[in-house]
Design a protein that fits this description.
alpha+beta; paralog of FGE (formylglycine-generating enzyme); 245 residues
Length: 245
């Protein structure tokens, strides 16, 4: 029965040209204020770009798998995906009866997300682009913080019913964390033995706040901490993605 419903639903989607992820929103160029200041640069210039209005949905990813079957759970190379890749799906082409098709897809690796965007002529956003568009003035930061503290990030809410920011972009906060192209750009890579004392202070314990541009932007601290623990094959139920161009 579910397969019949899916076929009918797919035909309806294709016939009216409807895209679950909506239109792409043009973001004007501007200055991004990184959380961690380095190299005496307080701001980074971000060129204008377009970003998906919604994160990529389960339905869209299912369509992608049907067109690229080498990325289904049973066929995807372990070089590109970990053991948890699409682990919550019932089978290769069936997310399961309890999965909302218009919710953001999750349990997708960086490699898979990157390939998805490339397949549709797009790319993953850079960290600067994502944080630039996700930045919110106070008191919105307080509202964002409630998503991280009082609510569990999950992928069960339809993307169109999520938080919308001032640019008309949905789900940047409160649905899932999202992959960015250079997610590991600020990961501490030194082994500690050859690092200066200043580098050690900046990278460990309470010293992590040293050189930070905005101590009140705690949501950015949470995102930074989350990204610092990622690796490209990783996937989880609270991690999705969207594309830019």
């Amino acid at each position: 029965m579910r397969n019949i419903v899916y076929v009918v639903f797919s035909y309806f989607i294709v016939s009216i040209g409807f895209l679950v992820s909506g239109e792409m929103i043009r973001v004007p160029d501007g200055l991004y204020h990184p959380l961690t200041i380095g190299n005496d640069l307080d701001f980074e210039y971000v060129k204008s770009f377009e970003i998906d209005q919604y994160p990529v949905t389960v339905f869209e990813y299912l369509r992608f798998l049907k067109e690229n079957p080498h990325w289904v759970r049973s066929q995807a190379s372990p070089i590109y995906v970990g053991f948890s890749y699409l682990k919550n799906w019932k089978s290769d082409f069936d997310p399961g009866e309890k999965v909302e098709l218009q919710a953001p897809v999750s349990q997708v690796s960086w490699f898979a997300a990157k390939y998805f965007c490339h397949y549709y002529g797009k790319r993953l956003p850079t960290l600067a682009e994502w944080e630039y568009i996700a930045a919110e003035p106070m008191p919105s930061i307080k509202k964002i913080l409630t998503f991280y503290i009082k609510q569990d990030l999950h992928a069960s809410t339809k993307v169109g019913f999520s938080y919308k920011n001032r640019n008309g972009i949905y789900g940047l906060h409160g649905l899932v964390f999202e992959w960015v192209f250079d997610y590991d750009s600020d990961v501490y890579l030194g082994d500690g033995r050859e690092s200066s004392e200043a580098e050690k202070v900046e990278s460990f314990c309470g010293g992590g706040a040293f050189g930070v541009s905005d101590l009140a932007n705690y949501p950015a601290f949470i995102r930074k901490s989350f990204r610092n623990n990622l690796y490209a094959q990783y996937s989880s139920t609270n991690l999705g993605f969207r594309c830019v161009k």
